[in-house]
Amino acid sequence: MIEIKKNELLKNHTTFRIGGPAKYFSVAKNSIEVREAIDWAKEKKVNFKIIGGGSNLLVADSGFDGLIIKYFGGEINLKNELMEAGAGVPLTRAMNDSLRAGLVGLEWSIGIPGTIGGAICNNAGAYGGEMSQSIASVEVLVGGKIKELKNADCHFGYRESAFKNGTITGTILSAKLRLKLVSPEEIVTVKQKMQANLADRLSKSAEGGSVGSTFRNITLSEKEIKELKNKFPELPDRFVEYRKVPVAWLIDECGLKGKKIGGAMVSEKHAGKIINLGGATAEEVIILISIVKQKVRSRFNLQLMEEVEYLGF
Hints:
313 residues, alpha+beta, Uridine Diphospho-n-acetylenolpyruvylglucosamine Reductase, domain 1, 3 domains, five-stranded antiparallel sheet, 20 strands, 26% strand
């Protein structure tokens, strides 16, 4: 049987280290316990929300008026080039297990916290890879019934999916990932590249609690990127080539590195990250996000979109 706690502080369950109490809180280690917790919430007629590692959440200072189900754990099964993993499995564990089996496909995720379920919902990605590239199917609980959705059913986009935008309202229970078997020599090469990526990631690591990138990078049409280059000649040519503008560059150009509102600050290492210096409130983060969006819009006429998910607002 699952344990239901009361008034659990959610700042202890997010990488931002921000957030008030959940009225009810439970930890589920597998999909059976997830379903038990959902049944409890329905029986008590309270709202519920499933979280994983809390690495992409900004929780309201008032907390969440309902049941938070923290799905963290689960099984991994490998058969040939197919991995079946519970949604609560940490992404790092899935990556390490796959590499030990000589499989590649998740190496882009080195250094990324969170779980399989969260990575699917947000279509997490880095260094040229993303979750959608490996998804064969996703097992979802919808209206009390389990359905298996194919990759195309999930409507993956840049840091986007049908789960995130609400098109699919079910609960992700597990997923099947299609990976690739390579030689031991290739694994060595992959691991070397991973270490370089990890070093790069650590060099940009925020100085306090954060959700990583606060905003989505901006992809423009060929016409739009040329117009931006004409207006701002300092725009690096590599951005024009890929038609993608890193938000960190835009924010840095606005002189916002180190900008503070209370305990929240635009990272001095990576302008695309807002960090909790200690004791920051969700309200302070939201005010800072609003300032950043307004400054970028005023200078570049570009509208930033948050990558972070809001909870309890």
